[in-house]
Amino acid sequence: MKDFRSHFVFSRSQQNGIFLLVLIIVVLQLIYFFGPFSSKAALPPEEEEELLELQREIDSLKAVAAAKKDSVEMAPFNPNYISDYNGYLMGMSPEEIDRLHAHRGKELWVNSAEDFQQVTQVSDSLLRKIAPYFKFPEWRQKPSEAKSFKNNISEAPLRKQDLNAATSEDLQQINGIGEKLSARIVKYRESIGGYRGEVQLQDVYGLSSEVIQRLLQRFEVRNVNHPKQDLNSIDIIALSKLPYFNYELARKVVSYRQSQNGIKSFEELGNIPGFPVEKIKGIQLYLAID
């Protein structure tokens, strides 16, 4: 027992050293918990002000975007032709828009606000917001007249719109055509100076055959008598300016024509290396063989 207590007997200098060590530990603990430390390095006042100004600008843009979305003005419309973009502006979710498009893809129609909610499963609050703008054809609003309308539809077919006069908004009424695809259709139309035939819709990137069929149910290329140039007499420069051609391809066609003493049929063009034979139907809208 005496030996055990001897371990706790310290000299005056040892006692002072222990006291000093405890004091240092306490001071360090106080500094750690109450000291003015920060996890972020302090920025110069100029940079901090720039960051605050940038954050204010971002907050302002967010507020403007939210206000623009909430203040979209709606005109009466047929909900059967809601596009992805217009559905988003009205507050519909992608799933709700997809349900409507799937319903229309089966050649089924929405004939009332109740039908619209049943098909899309939109909330009651959203339906109350947009339903006042729904505009259905009169024969759909009056079931007693629907049968008469269907019986007379063959006698009074729906007049198709001119595809060369259609706007992007007109094209977006077709199921499967959104903002980007309608812009491509219009841009390609402008690049070729207007559509001359329905086959040229196949040249628009992303436009599937199913969507083309739906498009041609409401739009048509009006029969305009465009003069065709003779494939056996047109020169390289004039040929290179036509759709589907560039200077190099035009040079090959003219060179082949000279070597064969004329071209007898469009099928012969397939003998030219690199010739886009899949575009021959479109090429025939601009050229003829006399």
Automatic annotation (TrEMBL):
Lineage: Bacteria, Pseudomonadati, Bacteroidota, Flavobacteriia, Flavobacteriales
Positions of transmembrane segments: 16-35
Gene3D superfamilies in UniProt: AF1531-like domain (1.10.150.280)
Protein name according to UniProt: Helix-hairpin-helix motif-containing protein
Keywords: Membrane, Transmembrane, Transmembrane helix
